[in-house]
Amino acid sequence: MANALNSKTEPREPDNEDAERAPLLREPREGLPAVTADADALAGVIAALGAGSGPVAVDAERASGYRYGQRAYLVQVRREGSGSALIDPIACPDLSELNAAVGDAEVVLHAAHQDLPCLSEINLRPTLLFDTELAGRLLGYQRVGLGFMVERLLDVRLAKEHSAVDWSQRPLPEDWLRYAALDVEILIELRNALEAELAETGKLEWAREEFASVLAAPPKEPRPDPWRRTSGIHKVRNQRALAAVRELWYERDRIAQERDISPGRVLPDAAIVEAATAMPRTTADLTRIRQFGIKLARRYVQTWIRAVDRAREMDQAELPRPNAPGDGPPPVNRWADRAPEAACRLEAARATVTGIAEDVVMPTENLLLPDTVRRLAWAPPETVDPGSVGEFLRTRGARNWQIGLTAEPLATALREATKA
């Protein structure tokens, strides 16, 4: 905390309840670094980071809601002895030399699952990870945002007013850059505080297993039928209307990718759902739907009409199924009628996992994924004992610490539920 407060801060201010608030970080302790945007500057940054010591704090800013995809538009890096650097990954799209410079040093990220994919795109791939958000979850924090955790553990505040801006903008305003630099300013101090708490609560080895699992996870496969995640699709009542959602969604995605803008800025989900429900036949009918009258959507009005027409003219066999096919158990609300024994097992398994999670003070989903619990209850091993249950959990990706905590109690719960 002492190091954190070497940065410039504002005086404590009372909050709405007249309690003192932590001081607000205003300036990076060594001043705002220039943005690294050419090969020579990048070589200097890499050399400085290689000469530093200890963990490397990393953050990335994307342009979610503005651009297509999740690429990084700014990368912030900090290490003891080398200070902070702001790197423009559009001008410097290959950070592979940074990997070699820091070697096997631990990389500290907050919510690594969000940043690792875009960092991988620019060839920045950690070999050792500390995820401060995941550490907070394992410690049972109900709020794990960076700002909250910094204020709670280090007694300083981070400004968050630029968290949702368009980071693809060039040049980036100085106040945005200052905000970005401060996100890594005390990330290592936060890491150290969390590591001490993990050790004190006996969870440090659990955390190390989790961090290693995050790093080892393969890239996510494209989601099948991504159009089924259209917000409000539950309002669409028949297969032909579902086909219209699908056709409109893919047209929107194509346009968004071509223009490199967020799909929601081409056409909102609500417009897709309304058009699929109404199935308009003419451009006049279509533009009566308010969102189709906005400038960009109106430019493609013929595209939208052709998409709806394709859905209208499809053979029955071409229409999408009402529910996406899956490889898992049926929806839980059907179990009581279709498989009452499985429903009893699920109730017992859920209660067991909830009880253990309460004992070790963490969210149940961090102890075991809900899907894993459902699959175990639906189709348990032929012989239910701690060994077979543990092996089942391992095949679903559970880590050693999770298996050690849950395999035996779950085996007991499943056997007792079967007897009931």
Automatic annotation (TrEMBL):
Keywords: Hydrolase
Cross-referenced SMART domains: 35EXOc, HRDC
InterPro entries attached to this UniProt entry: 3'-5'_exonuclease_dom (IPR002562), Exo_C (IPR041605), HRDC-like_sf (IPR010997), HRDC_dom (IPR002121), HRDC_dom_sf (IPR044876), RNase_D-like (IPR051086), RNaseH-like_sf (IPR012337), RNaseH_sf (IPR036397)
PROSITE patterns with a match to the protein in the record: HRDC
Documented EC number(s): 3.1.13.5
Location of region: Disordered: 1-28
Pfam families, sorted: DNA_pol_A_exo1, DNA_pol_A_exoN, HRDC
Protein name, as recorded: Ribonuclease D
Organism ancestry: Bacteria, Bacillati, Actinomycetota, Actinomycetes, Streptosporangiales
